[in-house]
Amino acid sequence: MADPSFSYLTSLECSETGRPYDADRPQNLSDAGATLFARYDLDAVRAVVSPAEIARRPETLWRYHEILPVRSPEHVHGFDEGMTPLLPAPTLGAEIGIRNLLVKDESPLPTGTFKARGAAVGVARAAELGITRLAMPTNGNAGAAWSAYGARYGLDVTVVMPVDAPRITRSEAAFAGARVSLIDGLISDAGRTVGRHVATTGLFDASTLKEPYRVEGKKTMGLEIVEQLGWRVPDVIIYPTGGGVGLIGIHKALLELQELGWIGDRLPRLVSAQAAGCDPVVRAYESGADNVTALEGTTTIAFGVNVPSPLLGGPSVLRAIRATGGTAVRIDDDDALAALRATAEAEGLLLCPEGAITVAAARRLREAGWIAEDDEVVLLNTGAGNKYPDAVEVTLPVMRRDDDLPHV
Questions:
Q1: Which in 57, 306, 346, 348 has the greatest CB count within 10 A?
Q2: Global confidence as pTM
Q3: Measured at the alpha carbon of residue 292, what is the angle toward residues 217 and 187, in degrees to the nearest 5?
Q4: What is the pLDDT of residues 327-352, one digit of tens each?
Q5: 211 found inside a domain
């Protein structure tokens, strides 16, 4: 039974035309072929809840349930996910030249990455809508998260991932009972395979931005950042961008908070940080385009952002960057790996390669003067570094049993 006081979801809305769609039946794209976004009765939300009330709730992402799409608490039985730490990084900040540097560390989430947010909300809503079988392409971590939540909710999950995806993610998905297929290609190739499979089997397509609710889970990053800062916004948020769902979600969260009157008119400048080996958003931003152009032959050690054709998310990502006075920056793998090591040495944080891209981006933008010394800057570390053994592997000498330790 739906609980009208739990979610104030009213409809889905085409991201390009604004046309409304029924939120209470399974939906993929709009008739225009665009992403559908969830809309809420924010006037009613404002009348029934306040930031003070939210602060008294359990520290999970479901503390924001009025502006999440699941209609009944009976359909929330995940892993108590959410409220990841927002950690000051003073030593690293001093070295870069940013006094107020913070890291939103998503590594404590289930399956070790921020993908758990999208899965927590997306799978719960799918189950509530009666979906029992779904399929999705993945670079690894999303497949692991959706498989884990699929097991939790009793859904049948099929994932297709590139053969070069982090090996631990295929194991996570397989152990959770998902049907896992590897493809000799990129996530764009996996997406085409899923599309053909969905068309012939009737499975629900849970691909990035082809279902409306993954972005609702991701937007809780933005909600948490604002709450953790005392219901105010930082100056800059830097996000490692592949498909762009997280950046879109953060922007959506900020706009909803503005409409609720819980933050002021100023928004943080949103930065899309990409790998130089896969930078379609940066290219589109620099050229003034309204959408991205698919790339070929992309490669980066930050596998989670190796998305050569984020076509569905492209317009929304570019709008978010431009509307907030943000920017887009590309980072070489060598600079990302150097940032990963520097962050570990300075702060004890073993970032994922995608998170390390945001550190390198902050350094680049500070050197260029785009970020000021006194700006408050939040970096998104989207996962645990130890899920990427190839990226963090080191070679150490082996001592003989009677050797003394090296002198320091």
A1: 306
A2: 0.96
A3: 60
A4: 999 999 999 999 999 999 999 999 99
A5: no
